[in-house]
Amino acid sequence: MDGTARLAIGRLAKHTGTNVETIRYYExxxxxxxxPRSAGGYRLxxxxxxxxxxxxxxxRLLGFSIGEVRTLLRLADExxxxxxxxxxxxxAHLADVRNKIAxxxxxxxxxxxxxxxxxxxxxxxxxxxxxxYREDIPDLHTATSLSERGRRRRSNGANRxxx
Length: 163
Prior knowledge:
Elements: E1 7-8, H1 9-16, H2 20-28, E2 44-45, H3 47-61, H4 66-77, H5 83-117, H6 127-133, H7 140-162
Antiparallel strand pairs: 1-2
């Protein structure tokens, strides 16, 4: 697409693999300037819209929030492109990603332990269903400590039975 070519929203969506409603949403929340319109009122997107949409899509695929994308776009629009400020945004996002990974690992462990207690599913009592009905389900960090305590109790019980 050269600098003079214009794409209708459907072609832009197809070209980038973005949903039409998502493109309209990005315009509505002002992640980019509204495109000019044809005589018939259709949006006509240019090269800058295409580049900006690709930027937004890549940032979103990396998990950046809309607010973070907005900040990154503002920084990208500055002539001197303050890399140090971009780094601050990226480092904060990286810390969030690492926290989510830790939470996912905890969820995996808790689910694995609960599934293991389900045995072969032959009985009428299902530990997983019971756990989901409980009102006192701990948050992930509490679940970690409870899970570790349970493991210690099981290993201590096993050691006592051997003595």
